[in-house]
Amino acid sequence: EPEVTQTPSHQVTQMGQEVILRCVPISNHLYFYWYRQILGQKVEFLVSFYNNEISEKSEIFDDQFSVERPDGSNFTLKIRSTKLEDSAMYFCASSAGQGSTDTQYFGPGTRLTVL
Amino acid sequence: AQKVTQAQTEISVVEKEDVTLDCVYETRDTTYYLFWYKQPPSGELVFLIRRNSFDEQNEISGRYSWNFQKSTSSFNFTITASQVVDSAVYFCALSEAFPYNTDKLIFGTGTRLQVFP
């Protein structure tokens, strides 16, 4: 069964460093998302991406964040200068149809620890 | 305002007991979708079910069943004859399709279910 994959599973970084989290969405899906979950809290939407551009973003997704689909398979989230409060689990998701109506399938997550 | 409330923070049951996880939602839309996801201790989010706002039929899948009641804005999830492998955090989520078409899933705070042998 097709699934969303994410690498790395765990990333440790120093405050102020740049990190890139990688995702490979399900191959025939067209809509891509990033969410984050601070430890013990609920899952929060960051950004959605369709047709090579951001379609929606939350207030969390400020100028420190960017997303890219550098090739036909990968979807990345870059945090330019990490802060302590960026420590969280980051989930990538994808859907065949638009996120408002279709099921979003999630990857296993990348745990980001900022020291 | 759009919101999903899961009032039960944690539930503990003994194996074979039935358990119901509550979910209450608020939405400004007339067309919306409701979801349940399971997050086992390993951390991934596993999709369980999607319902649209026009389909109030209850659904059963094996030991799982869902009760959608638009009149009370609730979408409750029942596990029958619970098993230790059901131990996880369960999230209810909402997406809004019309007229405020938005991509994001709005999650509740989750209910941690612990099933003891």
Annotate the secondary structure layout.
The complex is a heterodimer of chains A (115) and B (117).
Chain A: E1 5-7, E2 10-13, E3 19-24, E4 31-37, E5 43-50, E6 53-57, E7 65-68, E8 75-79, E9 88-95, E10 105-106, E11 110-114
Chain B: E1 3-5, E2 10-14, E3 19-21, E4 24-26, E5 31-39, E6 46-52, E7 59-61, E8 64-69, E9 74-79, E10 88-98, E11 106-107, E12 111-116
Parallel strand pairs in B: 2-12
Antiparallel strand pairs in B: 1-4, 3-9, 5-6, 5-10, 7-8, 8-9, 10-11, 10-12
Treating each run of at least 4 consecutive H or I residues as one helix, how many helices of chain A? 0
Count of alpha/pi helices of chain B: 0
Radius of gyration of chain B, in angstroms, nearest whole number: 14 Å
Distance between the termini of chain A: 37 Å
Which series of helices and strands of chain B comes N to C?
EEEEEEEEEEEE
Q: Can you tell me the residue ranges of chain A where pLDDT is under 50 for at least 5 consecutive residues?
A: none
Indicate the mean pLDDT of chain A.
Answer: 94
Strand proportion of chain B:
over 45%
Count the E strands of chain B. Answer: 12
